[in-house]
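Quick note —
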Amino acid sequence: MLKLLKSIRIFLWVCVLIGVGCLVGFQVMAKLKQAEANLRSLETEQITVYPVEVEFVKASNYDVWRSYYGQAKSAHTQNITTYEREIVKTVHVDIGSSVKAGQTLITLQVADRGAKVQAGQTAYEDAKANYNRLRQLNAQGGISKSEVDTAYTAMKNAEAQMKSTQTTLQRTTLKASINGIVSARNVEPGEIAEAGVPLLSIVDPKSMEAELMVSKKDVSRINQDTLVEIYVDGVKSNGVVKRISPEAQSGSGLYPVVVGLEDNSGILPGTYLEGRFRVQSIQNAVIIPSNVVIYRGDTQSVYLADGNKAKLVRITTGEGQNGQVVVTSGLNVGDELITSGNRVLYDGARINRSLDMAGNNSINNLNDEG
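Predicted structure written out below.
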């Protein structure tokens, strides 16, 4: 009986040991499978391939444009003023009236002036008659030559006075000196016209120009051969540089540049406009989309496709506009530039590339917008 109990006890312990061994074995196997899964996952991460798009770097001409703004004005203007204070009798034109050179625009009162002209004419004729009479007497020996000279001087003074009053009378008729359109009227009949105060303004709409304020950086690159485009409400016309001020305006530090406008541009005085100057033309420039440039601190870089790997290349950029930038160093013609998918890359990353045909075309078709 004791032997049977001992055997049963040994059997039970053996079963317990076998159970414990099986449990440990299952746990070890589970950990091995987990480790194997982790290893496979790590291997998968290590061989991640990033899809990218590339385009070939090419060289082409690149124009740099700068936009500045100003207001159109007439190159030929006239302010109608009076020589001296007088009452306005008639205003013959109104705002918007077309006028010709020599046309009478304003007539001033002439009553007092007419009397002065008549008096001056009479005085001159009397002095002239007296001079002729004394000259005849001198020829007959009746008077001295000095009396004739005195009469001659008096005649000339009377003549000068007469001409002066005639000129004053002529100044009561104010005329246009240019062809154009009346742009301002500041007087009405019956009012007093003050000397030197503009009564009417005339502008010539066929001779228009604009003064644009240009920065110091660009004014040195502008001359009379610089191409200029004028935009008003999206409508383009051409301009030509007429004058460049060598002195900046106080306060703004900008330099006035006067641009002549086309006669058929249809731009009216006072119109606000945009003037675009071609300040630089770069031949055989390497141009890339500006959004592919990666900025890290003070450095600029792009990714190139080097076989099936991404290569980080440091570059230097220059002028840029409209989503494009000129690369001055770091890239060569024929390099395969990664244009899409570059934001998740790192140097040496595995890539699967496709040719970005749209980008490849856009790198050569330069937009001149500034």
